Every structure is written in C-alpha cells, then in structure tokens.
Amino acid sequence: MEETMSMRSHGDGTATLSERERRPAAWAQDAAAVIMRRCDELAAFSDMPSGIERLYLSPEMSRAYELTAGWMREAGMDVHVDPAGNLVGRVEGREPGLPALILGSHLDSVPDAGRYDGILGVVSSVAVVRSLVREGMSGRLPFALEVVAFGDEEGARFGATLLGSYALAGGWKDEWLDLRDAAGTSMRQAFLDFGLDPDRVGEAALDRSQAVGYLELHIEQGPILEQRDRALSSVSSIAAASRYMVTIEGESRHIATPYDLRRDALTAAAEMIQAVDSISREAGTRANVGEISAEPGGVNVIAGRTVFSLDVRAGTDSDRDEVFDAIWRAFDGIAERRRVMVSHRLIHTADAVVCDADLRACIEEGVEQAEGKPAFGLVSFPGHDGMAVAELLPIAMLYVRCRGGISHSPDEAVREADVAYGVDAFHRAVLSVAKRMTVAEPRVVSSTE
Ligand code: CO
Q1: Which site from 30, 50, 241, 409 is most exposed, i.e. has the minimal number of CB atoms within 10 Å?
Q2: C-alpha of residue 165 to centroid of ligand 1, in Å
Q3: Cβ–Cβ contacts within 10 Å for residue 104, how many?
Q4: How far is the CA of 15 from the centre of ligand 1 (A)?
Q5: How far does residue 123's CA lie from ligand 1's centre (Å)?
Q6: Distance 117 CA to ligand 1 centre (A)
Q7: Rounded Cα–Cα distance for residues 24 and 426 (Å)
Q8: Are 370 and 232 in contact (CB under 8 A)?
Q9: Which of 181, 88, 98, 178 is nearest to 143 (CA)?
Q10: Distance in Å, CA 153 to ligand 1 centroid
C-alpha cells in the first residue's frame, strides 16, 4: 500500500528505484507475520517454570522439534533428526542427491532468554524454503536446500558450546559425552534419553562434497543497525576472541603503610582495567573485565594479590593481537610504576572467521534488493554456529536489527517489518547463490552430441 502511495506521490511515474523497492515483497510481509507467530509458539517450550530456557537434548527441545518439523514438512521438506540431535529439513534441487546449500541457526537458548536469538534464523529459513517450493524454484536450483536447526549453540546445558554445529562440521569430540549438566546427567545419558545413540554422534559430520555453503540469518545482538536506521546488514567476520586470567602480585600490608612503600595489587588492577577500556575503545575492538578477586580481602589490608579475567574481541586476528600487545605494554608500565608483578594465562582463544566473499556478496545483493539501499558488513562480536561450520564450509550471515541491541534477555525484540525485509533478502540471497553457481559451472559438452 505504501509502495503505491510513494509511486503516486510523484504523479509522473518517476519513482526512483530505491523508493519502489523500499517495501519488502508481499509474500515476505505475509511470511513475517507467520514467523513472528511461530517465534511466539516456540517460546512456550521452556525448561524453566517461567521465562524461556531450552536446552540441548531436553524434553522441551523435543517438543520444539516436533512443532518445527511440522512446519518443515508443510514447506515441502523431508525431515530427520541427525545423530547429534540437530533437526534437519531437506528439499531436493533440480536432481536428487545434489550437495546442499544449508540455511541454519539454533533452537536452544540461554537461561531466561528472548524468543529470537537463533530461533528467528530457523523459522525464517523454513519460510524461505517454503516460498521457493511454492514458486517452483526449488526444483530448478543447482543445489538441494537444507534447513538445519542446531540443538546446541549456547552451551547452556553442558558448558561446551556450538555442539550441534561442530558435529555437523566434523569437529565432534567424544570426550564431550562425559560432561554433566547441573542435575548431574551426563551428555551420554542425555543422548539416550533423547532417543539417540551416543556412540554415533560423530556420524552427523557432513562430507565437504555434501554441501556448497552455509547461510545464517540472525538478530544483530548489538545496536549498530538501529543507530544507522537500517533493518539489515551482512556480517563481514565473526570476531576473534581471546580470554586470559591476569594475576597481579603485590604485598599485603596495613592501611597505615605510606604510599611510597605500598605494592598495592588492587590499585594496580584498577589502573590496568582503565587501560584495557581506553586501549580497546581507541582500537574499535571490544574488551571486558568481568571477574575480579582480591586477597586477602580485609577492609584495612592492602591487597597483596589480584586476579581478573580479560576477554578481547576484534574483527581480525591481527587487530586482536595488536590490541593485546598494547594492553600488555600498558600493564608492564603500570606494574613497574606500582612495583607489582603481573602475569597472564591464556584460557580460551578462537580466531576470527571471515565470511566467504562470494556468499557475502549474495547476502548483500539480497539486502540491496530487499531494502533498496546499499549493503554494508558488520563485525559480529557474539559467536555463532557459523564459526564451527566454517571449519568445513564457506559461510555468510545476514543480520536483522533488534530493539536496543538487547539479546540473551526476555526483552529481546524485533520489528515484523524488519523480519519481512530479512526473509525477502535471505530468499534473494539463495537465488543469487544459484545464479552465481550456474554461471560458474563449466559447460560440459558431450562429444556424442
Ligand atoms: Co544465536
């Protein structure tokens, strides 16, 4: 309706391309209404008495799968649960058995979660496949389409994260089966309870020849799209992350100690935390000190020992490493001036995952056509299933604006209009991948012809 109005407002039919394309496709607006309703329906499956918590291999996850599998079948897909407990729907391309373009995200959640992180990507992917099937397009594609709803991304049940996507990408570790949840249930038992064989989880791994790539639609979980007044963006990379525990050794003494004799581990930590903040701000990276302890912990005792966590994320490995170098230089200077010893221990590191240039171009083509505005890429500071999948396949992601950048909270919210743009863009991205593949395929000329 608004489209007609904006065209008419020109009177002479000279509406610009961007004005004509500002509205998402009509089918996408209808699909968005269905998607919003389905996200609400899935939110009812919770392992918590109030609020949303859906855990890997839980009975509530099983119920969520049943509902989602019904939607997948209605969209024209064959559905199965893979040996790692991921829900998979598939529709064949122009011939059976072609490698798949995988559209995925996760159905598990953190405790007291919102209803869109992961879920929106799964439900939107089903809508895109449904639309391609209805249009008769799916049977002309040079790939099969698979929607994968990962059973674990957040790691909320067993601590280890990205379990579903690591299994798909061939990175499953059998030692994870011995992890236990808060109730003491081992993952091995959880697989049995879910009706799966824990000794066959590794069989969920895809062979590289079975898939052409992986696309994921996800809420931004940050405020940049809102600040730029945009519904969508691509993701340029998923951030490199490293976590350290930093220890400062000083000397515990009475508060009466004059300043020039103090070796205060806590004031040194305070200064170091300030340095982390300013160095990371300056570099455009993200850093956080979220945990700190001081010993001996007396109100009138100068702290002799302080331990704090440090998490730094950056768009590239080299940016992260440069920021760390700058932080360690600052720490050394502070430690020298305050006459304390500082040391650090690496506890986790993950390199940045750069989205595939071709698949990202397809996502951006979709964004430009759906929104009628130039596309741009954002660094994803949260981790995603794509990080694990990227060990096997080229990946790209589509971000959809969320309110206030809030996520992992019941206050998570998206606008239905943005979901319509998102599903429109995602649908166009799939067709764009098909077009590029068709162009890229060498023409095989049979000598008998
Ligand atoms: Co997520």
Answers
A1: 50
A2: 12
A3: 28
A4: 38
A5: 13
A6: 5
A7: 11
A8: yes
A9: 98
A10: 7
Q: Where in the chain is the domain with CATH 3.40.630.10?
A: 3-238+352-439
CB atoms under 10 Å from CB of 80, counted, come to 12
Query: Measured in angstroms, how far is the CA atom of residue 397 from the centroid of ligand 1?
Result: 12
How close is the Cα of 267 to the center of ligand 1, in Å? 37
CA distance linking residue 113 with residue 115, whole number of Å = 7
CA of 241 to the centre of ligand 1 (A): 16
The reply to whether CATH 3.30.70.360 applies to domain 240-350 is yes
Question: Which of 221, 258, 235, 225 is CA-nearest to residue 363?
Answer: 235
For ligand 1, the distance from its centroid to the CA atom of residue 110, given in whole angstroms, is 9
What distance in Å separates the CA atoms of residue 370 and residue 364, rounded to the nearest whole number?
10
CA–centroid distance, 42 to ligand 1, in Å, is: 15
| Residue ranges, CATH 3.30.70.360, the chain | 240-350
Distance CA 209, CA 393 (A): 10
Asked if 266 contacts 257 with a C-beta cutoff of 8 angstroms, the reply is no
Within 8 A by CB and 6+ apart from 237, the residues are 315, 316, 352, 353, 354, 355, 379, 380
**Assigned token pair, 364:** 């951006």
Correct CATH for 3-238+352-439 of 3.20.20.105, 3.90.79.10, 3.30.565.10, 3.40.630.10: 3.40.630.10
Per-residue pLDDT of the chain (449 residues), as tens digits, is 333 333 333 333 344 444 455 788 899 999 999 999 999 999 999 988 889 999 999 999 999 999 999 999 999 999 999 999 999 999 999 999 999 999 999 999 999 999 999 999 999 999 999 999 999 999 999 999 999 999 999 999 998 889 999 999 999 999 999 999 999 999 999 999 999 999 999 999 999 999 999 999 999 999 999 999 999 999 999 999 999 999 999 999 999 999 999 999 999 999 999 999 999 999 999 999 999 999 999 999 999 999 999 999 999 999 999 999 999 999 999 999 999 999 999 988 889 999 999 999 999 999 999 999 999 999 999 999 999 999 999 999 999 999 999 999 999 999 999 999 999 999 999 999 999 988 766 544 444 43
- d(CA 302, ligand 1 centre) in Å: 43
How close is the Cα of 114 to the center of ligand 1, in Å? 10
